[in-house]
Specification:
The complex is a heterotrimer of chains A (289), B (125) and C (292). Chain A has 289 residues and is mostly helical. Chain A is built from 11 helices and 4 strands. In chain B, a hairpin with a 2-residue loop joins strand 2 and strand 3. Chain B is mainly beta. Chain C is mainly alpha-helical and 292 residues long. Chain C has one domain. In chain C, strands 1-2 form a two-stranded antiparallel ribbon. In chain C, strands 3-4 form a two-stranded antiparallel ribbon. The chains are: A mainly alpha (289), B mainly beta (125), C mainly alpha (292). Chains A and B meet through loops of A and loops of B.
Chain lengths: 289, 125, 292
């Protein structure tokens, strides 16, 4: 029983990071109706900037986070300008392939500046895990879950208690009607990109300080996890993104325990495939894409 | 039917399986991810002498891009030894492709992990 | 021609099969993030056939293509009614499942004192059929391009036929096509199977050219590249994906003086190109104008 609880706890912590990644993907998809293939890579780029800073200067975690946040948001803005804004009225496939092309750029710049395949990153918490009865609780996990809750709360507040949020929801609902009623879709678009990038930066920072390392694979990894979590929860739904992320974390933690790491990943993809094939009700498969 | 049999006979597999064996040692030159590598080639029990050897490298992800232009290896000191200088873009795992031509034509792929000091063969689990 | 140039041209040919595979899907309105899996299936199937069972290469290629078509049909059949990004994500999930399956595949036979066969994440080495038969690099290059051009011709001929017009109609407006009596699902299934066979053919040839394959070769990176080639080269003609592949491998290899900056330059060029030509260089408009 305590194994089950331990796995559940670990799963929630991982799920919290997936939820944040999925939230960022969904914000962009909701407003733009496109998947941003550079979302993960922009986070990786920010992580590399922070890693470079930590290698060359003696600064605290706060400064590193600020560097990562700023870099990721700037990278996100770059992607929005170059890959999404020009195709707003045009082809979704062109936008996605363009965002992929920028992924290649981020990866190359990162590996040029830091060519090793792995770099150490300062830890979020130097102490060990805390015992809680028969369970061990890692402080990083608590921080991850707490931050995720806080961010979800902040996003909810932004969307439902501000004018900007009302504009965003209008664009998500019906971009054409929103445009006609005076909302500037491009302005909403770039701000949502910035917000999504910021959320991604937070998730990414917590991930690299928990794993205490940065690798170039971070881009591919966050993209796959974020897309998977977003789809599991129902494409385009913000609460769905959070639930999808948590569910993915829980499914992974439990299936890894019983089936090992490769089957763990296999199961997650299999689940998504089946849910899509049967067009499970919350998947929103009937709405236009 | 006869035609099929003739075709099958023509395409029948050779039973000779003389494979080239390769062994590599690399040392970092201290310059920006450039490695001096010594490759020992053997065929059966004999060291392979006098072959034209070119050495390239590929990253496992995207094997047709992201690769290192093949360099010609020069003969080394010992029997079956060839020397090549590899200029890699990143440390980490590389699939080193050793292409042999001349008297013998073959290709061997070696899996090595490159770091600041040199390269070690990889046995991944 | 020096061996390096032969290698580059061979790679362009090999990757063109992937580009063609994505192309036929794109013009019929489907977006797939999974073609790399069929490429991988072709590679493993052909490698197993020649390296482990000593079957001849033509047979191995046929098996590979059948495998690719079957796998593609298996993926498409339950997911055909999904639109746009949903179908794309289903193909991505399926492709990752195949890649993990390659990681779990351990099957080796003892041949001449050596163990030969796929060994999970260690990969599958020793696919040496062309070396054992003394096939020269130029000969293999010719084989790759002959096959490629044969299929290019086939697709070109198909595009000029009624089938081609139907495909593009389905791509542009499936509902309209359905109302005009086209069995959209059956057609899409056939096209997906064909795209799987094409990708698998490329994979089979790749396995023999490289002599070594591993699961990591067939990841999402390869899949999105396969999408990029027809989109850059142009969706207006079957030569589009070939142009895209030539630009990628050609620009990548040709600009070695940009050592280490190739992806930055190329990525930027692609993004910029798509702004001005979102359907590629040889898009439908240009092809239409050139035909006049």
């Amino acid at each position: 029983m305590s194994d089950f609880l331990q796995n559940t706890l670990d799963g929630l912590a991982a799920g919290a990071s997936y939820a944040l990644l999925a939230l960022g993907f969904t914000l962009i998809f909701g407003v733009l109706r496109r998947a941003n293939l550079s979302y993960g890579p922009a986070i990786m780029f920010g992580a590399y900037a922070a890693a470079w800073t930590s290698l060359n200067f003696h600064v605290g975690l706060g400064v590193l986070f600020a560097v990562m946040l700023a870099t990721t948001v700037l990278a996100g803005a770059y992607v929005e300008r170059l890959a999404f804004a020009p195709h707003r009225a045009g082809s979704a496939v062109a936008a996605m392939v363009a965002s992929f092309a920028l992924w290649m750029q981020f990866e190359e710049v990162a590996t040029l500046v830091l060519p090793r395949h792995l770099y150490a990153f300062p830890a979020l918490y130097e102490g060990g895990p805390l015992p809680l009865g028969a369970l061990t609780v890692r402080v990083e996990a608590l921080v991850m879950i707490g931050v995720a809750i806080a961010i979800c709360g902040a996003v909810w507040w932004l969307l439902y208690r501000t004018r900007f949020g009302a504009a965003v929801r209008a664009v998500i609902d019906n971009p054409i009607a929103a445009g006609l009623s005076g909302i500037s879709v491009p302005a909403v678009s770039i701000r949502i990109f910035a917000l999504a990038s910021a959320i991604g930066a937070v998730a990414g920072f917590l991930i690299v300080t928990t794993q205490e390392q940065v690798t170039p694979m971070l881009g591919m990894w966050s993209t796959l996890k974020g897309l998977l979590a977003m789809m599991l929860g129902g494409l385009g739904s913000l609460p769905g993104a959070v639930i999808g992320g948590l569910a993915l974390g829980l499914i992974e933690a439990h299936s890894q325990w019983y089936l090992g790491p490769q089957l763990r990943d296999f199961l997650a993809y299999f689940l998504l495939f089946v849910l899509l094939a049967v067009r499970a009700p919350w998947m929103n498969t009937r709405s236009a894409s | 039917m006869m035609k099929l049999l003739v075709l099958a006979a023509l395409l029948a597999p050779l039973t000779v399986h003389a494979q080239t064996r390769a062994d590599m040692q690399c040392k970092a030159t201290g310059k920006d991810l450039i490695y001096d590598c010594t490759i020992r080639l053997a065929r059966g029990d004999q060291p392979l002498e006098g072959a034209q050897v070119s050495v390239g490298a590929d990253m496992p992800s995207m094997p047709m891009a992201h690769n290192v232009k093949p360099v010609k290896a020069r003969p080394g000191n010992g029997p079956g030894e060839y020397l090549a200088r590899l200029d890699l873009e990143m440390t980490g795992e590389w699939a080193v492709k050793v292409r042999i031509s001349g008297k013998v034509r073959d290709q061997v792929v070696l899996h090595y992990r490159f770091d600041e000091r040199g390269a070690r063969p990889i046995r991944r689990r | 021609m020096d061996e390096y140039a032969i290698g580059v041209l061979t790679n362009i040919g090999l990757i063109s099969f992937l580009g063609l595979s994505a192309y036929v899907l794109l013009i019929s309105g489907e977006l797939s993030f999974g073609q790399q899996a069929f490429f991988g299936i072709g590679a493993y199937a052909a490698g197993i056939a020649t390296a482990m069972f000593a079957w001849p290469l033509p047979l191995a290629i046929a098996i590979a293509m059948a495998g690719g078509a079957t796998a593609a049909a298996l993926v498409a059949w339950p997911t055909l009614r999904l639109r746009g990004l949903y179908f794309a994500m289903a193909t991505l999930a399926a492709a990752e499942m195949f890649r993990i399956a390659f990681e779990l595949l351990h099957w080796q036979v003892e041949l001449g004192g050596e163990r030969v066969g796929p060994d999970g994440t260690q990969g599958f080495r020793g696919i040496r059929w062309i070396f054992e038969r003394g096939v020269e690099p130029l000969g293999f290059l010719a084989l790759v391009w002959l096959l490629l051009l044969a299929f290019v011709l086939g697709i070109w001929w198909m595009e000029r036929s009624r089938l081609g017009a139907t495909l593009r109609a389905v791509g542009a407006d499936p509902e309209l096509a359905r109302s005009l009596g086209v069995d959209v699902e059956r057609l899409k299934l056939a096209i997906v199977a064909a795209s799987g066979a094409l990708a698998a053919l490329g994979g089979a040839l790749f396995a023999h050219h490289n002599t070594y394959i591993e699961p990591r070769n067939f990841d999402l990176m390869l899949g999105v590249h396969s999408l990029a080639y027809p989109l850059i080269g142009g969706l207006g003609t079957v030569l589009g994906p070939l142009l895209g592949a030539a630009l990628d491998i050609g620009v990548l290899e040709g600009s070695r003086f940009l050592q280490g900056y190739r992806m930055i330059v190329f990525g930027g060029l692609v993004a910029l190109l798509l702004i001005f030509r979102p359907r590629g260089l040889l898009d439908e408009n240009l092809v239409h104008r050139l035909k006049k």
